[in-house]
From TrEMBL:
Membrane-spanning residues: none
Taxonomic lineage from the root: Bacteria, Pseudomonadati, Pseudomonadota, Gammaproteobacteria, Lysobacterales
Cofactor: pyridoxal 5'-phosphate
Matches recorded under InterPro entries: Aminotrans_V_dom (IPR000192), Aminotrans_V_PyrdxlP_BS (IPR020578), Pser_aminoTfrase (IPR022278), PyrdxlP-dep_Trfase (IPR015424), PyrdxlP-dep_Trfase_major (IPR015421), PyrdxlP-dep_Trfase_small (IPR015422)
Gene3D superfamilies reported for this sequence: Aspartate Aminotransferase, domain 1, Type I PLP-dependent aspartate aminotransferase-like (Major domain)
Protein name: Phosphoserine aminotransferase
Pathway assigned to this chain's UniProt record: Amino-acid biosynthesis; L-serine biosynthesis; L-serine from 3-phospho-D-glycerate: step 2/3; Cofactor biosynthesis; pyridoxine 5'-phosphate biosynthesis; pyridoxine 5'-phosphate from D-erythrose 4-phosphate: step 3/5
Native source species: Coralloluteibacterium thermophilum
Record-annotated Aminotransferase class V domain positions: 5-348
Length: 360
């Protein structure tokens, strides 16, 4: 058996170069005479690693100085709750734009803490974004929440929506680091790491410092962004190994040319795959409005439902893993994050052509 092209939506493929580096120093990390998993998070070596990781992330994303970077745990799902707890008063309004599965989840979870209002809802089957002009935004909202890239439906905001009366909060779980980004357009950006950043267990929060001064809601210190920022995300033991791997991913991204180069590569990958789907004469279909198609998650279906199972079996045997669509949508999905090389997308497209010839 060999390592295959992995199209999993998350936990997703990691850059092979990064896995090899981790393998090479798994038993002895630097001068530690122990693995990175076996040393104190308060030791000088690990503190230097975190400082370096933060500096690299700041450089990659050109994060302005008035933003704090937090390395947390609990996944994006925990942020659905921590965001209202930290930056909204109890029962204050917050506006949500619903564009698919994950933005709907964020809305539902926030309802425990805030008056969660639907500013716009694209409506099922969530294949387009609601036009900005039609959003009903509140005057008194603590923030406006969007999901930058809906991992399941494959719908992506190509840029930050403009002219908002409150700070923009965005779930970047499945698109952070996929292309350059103007952080200053957002009040808060968050992402579970396990798609485009590193392994599961690490959650990134990039938050404008003025939002840390908001009183928020009664909460334990461990749930406070301001406390975490003051303690450099070390209120308690952080996810040391995921942070180490993410730090390696940041170095890899810099070696690959940074986010501009990565964005061009991702654009080419997505364009090639959508062109293959659109050019299949209806054998394969992607239902999403071409203007908002995700560069990272490409859901598609075969015109005949029964062929999905055959496709999955044959593609897996051909070394193309995890192409099953999410159960909420069905069909197929190819997640093509940074770690998916162009050759992997080309191999998938070749397979799709071949499959169509045999079953079309
Ligand atoms: N938001 C988005 C956009 C996601 O894709 C996911 C995970 N698939 C989540 C939130 C939930 O993330 P977690 O499992 O890290 O809580």
């Amino acid at each position: 058996m060999t390592r295959a092209y992995n199209f999993s939506a998350g936990p997703a493929a990691l850059p092979e170069a990064v896995l090899r580096e981790a393998q090479a120093e798994l038993l002895e990390w630097g001068d530690a005479r122990a693995s990175v998993m076996e040393v104190s998070h308060r030791g000088a070596a690990f503190e230097a690693l975190v400082a370096d990781a933060e500096a690299d992330l700041r450089r990659l994303l050109a994060i302005p100085d008035d933003y704090a970077v937090l390395f947390l745990q609990g996944g994006a799902t925990q942020q659905f709750a921590l965001i209202p707890m930290n930056i909204a008063a109890p029962g204050q309004a917050a506006d949500f734009v619903v564009t698919g599965h994950w933005s709907a989840k964020a809305l539902a979870e926030a309802g425990t803490y805030v008056d969660a209002r639907i500013a716009a809802d694209a409506g099922a089957p969530y294949v387009a974004l609601p036009p900005r002009a039609g959003w009903r935004l509140s005057d008194d909202a603590a923030y406006v929440h969007i999901c930058q890239n809906e991992t399941i439906q494959g719908v992506e905001f190509q840029e930050a929506p403009a002219d908002l009366p409150a700070p923009l909060v965005s779930d970047f779980s499945s698109t952070l680091l996929s292309r350059p980004l103007d952080v200053s357009r957002y009040g808060l950006i968050y992402a579970g790491a396990q798609k485009n950043v590193g392994p599961a267990g690490l959650t990134l929060v990039i938050v404008r410092r003025d939002l840390l001064e908001r009183a928020g809601q009664p909460r334990a210190r461990i749930l406070s962004y301001a406390e975490q920022a003051a303690q450099r995300s070390m209120l308690n033991t952080p996810a040391t190994f995921p942070i180490y791997l993410a730090a390696r991913v940041f170095k890899w991204l810099e070696r690959e040319g940074g986010l501009a180069a990565m964005g061009e590569r991702n654009r080419r990958k997505a364009q090639a795959l959508y062109a293959a789907i659109d050019g299949s004469g209806g054998f394969y279909r992607n239902p999403v409005d071409p203007a908002v198609r995700s560069w990272m998650n490409v859901p598609f279906a075969i015109h005949e439902e029964r062929l999905h199972a055959v496709f999955l079996e044959e593609s897996d045997a051909a070394g193309l893993l995890a192409l099953k669509g999410h159960k909420a949508v069905g069909g197929l999905r190819a997640s093509i994050y940074n770690a998916m090389p162009e050759a992997g997308v080309a191999a998938l497209i070749d397979f799709m052509h071949d499959f169509q010839e045999r079953h079309g």
